[in-house]
């Protein structure tokens, strides 16, 4: 297939692009390489895919990979209503995997406009392009944050999610509603994937795994919110990638009634891990104790997440299963290598 992967310089988009290429698909990666976190990490991910920093810095010009002959990259904003439709017109994609978004729960309290621009306006543009160019399947990233104040554990994709507690979560819930509308009105096949706390090598610097490791290594205290009374369904990046690629590769009418064009799935480890246990694993791998700064829960945070993945098992025979011990070790090994420690 020929697949458009948006957010290709991002954590998950980088991995999805790489696996699709290794499986023989043609991939066009799109990213605006914004400065929400250091762009150097994004450029280094692209370099792993054969796109140099110099090539990645050019807007709206397609660069072909030196490593993968079937990979090309274009730097562009999803909000670009002129060049995005032209890209769809020129490339004739079979499928679209939309992983581009303004990420981060806490940052949405500081810069709400960025979330509306990227996550809502940008997503609408993707939907319009998919509709107008007869895309066979749109796969898009949602988030476990949509469950908000939901107290039923584990979280099921069938649960009511009308009570988000951050703007980020609200934009992800709006993506699901927008996708449902386009699936219903235009028979556009869409699949939303609710990711649960993704971690691993090449991960985002604003996520707990990276923040804790970096602070401990550099002799800074780590901020432990809700006084440590947090639990997360930590999901290793390889497991997330496997799930995403399986969904992309399986045409929607192979698994659905031909009149049913809209689906949602959780992708998580189906396990809730205490934050203290997660920190202990990092300390054990670094052979160094963390100085902990115990703080109250932050606005927009939830106390516990846990994914019910029965839908993914039923339709794809797949369930993430990488244990925390293995995933944390792999991240620490990568961190030491990347920063030459």
Automatic annotation (TrEMBL):
Keyword vocabulary terms for this entry: NAD
One family name in Pfam for this protein: Epimerase
Gene3D superfamilies from the UniProt entry: NAD(P)-binding Rossmann-like Domain (3.40.50.720)
Domain NAD-dependent epimerase/dehydratase, chain residue ranges per copy: 3-268
Keyword NAD: yes
Keyword NAD: yes
Protein name: NAD-dependent epimerase/dehydratase family protein
